Amino acid sequence: MSFQDTLNDFNQKISDFFSFIGNKLQNFKELSVGEQVSFGCIGVGILLILISIVLFLF
Known about the structure:
The protein is mostly helical. It is 84% helix and 0% strand. It has helices at residues 3-26, 33-57.
């Protein structure tokens, strides 16, 4: 397997992951309460990490 094949495989997996997340978020109201809470917590966590990186740099 060449480097290009490995890179294409990785890109396909990343694309599949984000399309899965996008599909879940399109049907957010139909998710269970636990899934809704977990998506919210993950979003807040990513936001806090980004804020901490910005504050650390400045």
